[in-house]
Amino acid sequence: MPISRRALLSTVPSAALLALVPALHARAAEPAGVRPADAAADRAALLANTVAIFAGTAQSNARPETAAKTASIASTARSHLAAMDAASGPSELFHGVTLGTSDPNLTTSFQYLYEIALATRTPGAPSDLSGSTDVQTRVADGLTWLYDHFYGDQAQGYYGNWFNWEIGIPTYAAKTLVLLDDFLTANRPGLSATYVAAMDGYLRNGKNGDVDLDSRFHTGANLADITTNRILQGAVLGDDARIAKALADQLTVYAAIDPYHLQHDVTDGFYADGSFIQHASVAYTGSYGSGLLTRIVQTIKMLDGTGYMTGGELVGVVQGWVSGAFAPLIFEGWMMETVKGRAVSRTGTGYADVATIVEAVVDLTGYTTGDDAAALGGYAKYVRQTSRSAPDPARFTSPVTVVRYADLLADTAVTARDLNAAAQHTAFAAMDRSIHRRPGYAFALSRSSTRISGYEYMSGENLMPWFQGAGAHYLYLAGQDQTQAFGIDYFTTVSPYALGGVTAPVEERRTVPELYGTAWYDNPDLGFTSSSVSQNTYVYFPLSTNAHSGGARLGAYGSAGWVQSDDAAYAAKQAGLLPDDFVVYRNADATKSWFMLDDEIVVLAAGVGDGAGRAVTTTLDTRIAGPSAPVTLTGRLRGGAPWSGTGTGPLAWLRYADAAQGTAVGYAFLDGPDPTVALRQVSRSRQVVRTSNPDTAAAKQVFSVAVEQPAGAAHTSLAYALVPHATEDALAGYARGPLSVLANTTRLQAVRHTRLGLLAANAFTDGTHHAERLTLDGPASVILREERDGTTSLAVADPTTGRDAVSVLVHGRALQAVSADEGVAVRRVAGGTRIDVTTRQAYGRSFQAVLR
How far apart are CA 466 and CA 567, in angstroms? Predict the structure, then answer.
């Protein structure tokens, strides 16, 4: 049976996890020369486990399912050995990988050595590789050469990106030392210690060659990487204290973040609602989060059979992540764009992103039993069954996992089953994301606030990100190959000003490299270096300047309200805090609500326009299709006349259909100016969104439906519904219900859906707000539903996260509570029922009650 998301997220409370830290600190504090009695056995187990993770075992690699994996390991090693043979000149260890000024190339050189070393420890690899001391000698010689010429001199190193020196290089170097431990002990006895000392020296964002939990660089997934490397370093040195200290530091990553009681001022990590943040304020489950998932599962496997931890504590943590943080973001095997940060500009697919998660889930089944193992194994099967590009086990990191996956798929006792409910709404309040699922579709919404960045740009990646957190949405349709709807080609061919859901001024913005000639704003005298706080705050991932972003969740229904605002860079420039040559951009104005129901997502927008008088475009939706796909556009005008094709007109509804993909989306125009429908052929190089992408063209038809306001136009409002898989008859039905827009202003937005018995309202300003049966006091989100059993269900949330309490009055006959969340008080008052909700430190969470 499916695991309860709520139960899993609380499987291992932060306090219980952090309670393990003192024992590890005590072990690390043992005097030099005094080691626990089982330290030698623990070291041997840790080394053996690590080799098995990456190279497999004789038993796993004898299975036919691992043949492709072991062949890939061997092929990669041979390619690198050939490149080593072809190297020329004093600046190459591998042909074409020039060293001296490029830290990525230095990292690549260490990666190649690791991949050669891996083949020498892989059972079942060809005999000239597996167990070959000649090849291991070449790797050891390569390590020595790199140290002597390009790594060992601390005064010459640490150029470029800090990540390569503190994480990238140590990751490959440490794993190489583990793989060659026996060989190096016998033939190069000082090399491991020499390298570990150098890695300590390059840990410059740390303290005294060790992790600094107060460093803004040593957080979240980055801290997990650093500490894993230090665990392996301790293993090769036999340094038990290093291992124990690194594990203690790593445990701090896995404890849920309490935004009101931050540890070491760190906001990076998983939150109680399943949100994941990296880089202080970026929604990042689909990239850094999946990397952290991989790391914790590897830690569980490395520690198996040792005395450092039982591993069960970490297993409980990962179960919660899989069910509550990752599964809601995966649709038919595709990782949603809304939580990938700058990684949306890379050429890898959402299917490949999910394969990494499936690998972790498969490994986790080996450390769980009963219903937990069945649910996790069933989910791995479900993803494979529903994905248009099933995970390729040959790309898994571990041959052992390849075998476990094959056994799981062959186990008829394990039933394929989603961890998500078919109808489900997930409010990731801590990262300004909403995910709405129904049979046939999933809807993902991206917002920003004073807590969450509007986008992430960095290192020449995601060059045109300006509106990705400005109400941009992604509507995923069942049965479709999502590479044909989203992914790299979506961001390449769709205008960055015309992402679905976005209101943007009509202007041309320039990318960071275009503005400054480099991948960042370079002004060291004023604190702007490649990884400075100022660079992060104003260039890489600026926050928005309005706190209102969030909504209520009532069962499988949800709402979100959001006030569009300028970002932190624009506000700082207006305040005179930024230099004259620093370029900022002003946003347009809009107050928006999304009401996410069964057959439709209803969107209201008010105060749409521009205080500076610029023209403004609000893109209701954008979709891409193949350049020759048979896309049809049909509709009806408000007067009843038929419509087809493109243009501007008083549409009552519009239907987009792509017969090649078997998909359709409808648009019911409830109120507002006449929309403009467009269908264009677009071909652009994928380098327009990421400088290191190949210069290959993405060619697509780009469909959009938008409301265009000319320069100087008054602010306006609009209301529409997105209807996945809509038929023409269903769209025609919106003219006579069941939707009613009750209010659409910058103060209050509300709708009623008569068939669902549902009333939902978002209030944005102080004061009293009325929406049919509801009276709201101040900014709040409320959903009320009259259930078939005669009860009334209610959900209330504080979308600002700053209010201590929210009060709601339900007019009509007096009701009493059947059930209510902690913090909800219900009492009868004149004219109805008053609900008082204590929202202090709830961080946008919804509170629910059932009344009768």
Answer: 10
Tokens of 447: 């917002």
Taking every pair of C-alpha atoms in the chain, what is the biggest distance, in angstroms? 89
Confirm whether pTM is higher than 0.90.
yes
Give the residue among 238, 199, 279 at the shortest CA–CA distance from 35. Answer: 238
Each residue of 403-419: pLDDT tens digit? Answer: 999 999 999 999 999 99
Chain centroid to Cα 621, Å, comes to 22
DSSP conformational letter for 487: S
**Angle, CA of 499, 501 and 502, to the nearest 5°:** 65
574 HSE (CA, 13 A, CB side)? 9
Residue 701: CB atoms within 10 Å: 18
pLDDT greater than 90 at residue 26: no
Give the Cα-Cα-Cα angle 766, 771, 774 (nearest 5 degrees).
85
- Judged on CB neighbours under 10 Å (0-12, 13-18, 19+), 242 is buried
CA dist., res. 800 & res. 424, Å (int): 23
Cα atoms in the Cβ-side hemisphere of radius 13 Å centred on 159: 14
- Rounded-to-integer distance, Cα 565 and Cα 386, Å: 39
> What's the token pair of residue 608?
């749409």
Integer Cα distance of 381 and 384 in angstroms: 5
Would you tell me how many other CB atoms lie within 10 Å of the CB of residue 275?
A: 29
* Amino acid identity at 121: R
Tokens in use for 517?
């000639």
Strand pairing report for 824-829 and 549-550: unpaired
7-25 burial string, b = 16+ CB within 10 Å, else e?
Answer: ebbebbebeebeebbeebe
What Å distances lie between residue 805 and 203, 783, 796, CA to CA? 45, 17, 10
- Non-local (6+) Cβ contacts of 85 within 8 A are 95
Distance CA(174)–CA(230), nearest Å, equals 8
Tokens (6 digits) for 458: 């960095």
- Token pair recorded at residue 817: 């509570």
Q: Is the pLDDT of residue 640 over 80?
A: yes
Strands 817-820 vs 847-851: parallel, antiparallel or unpaired? antiparallel
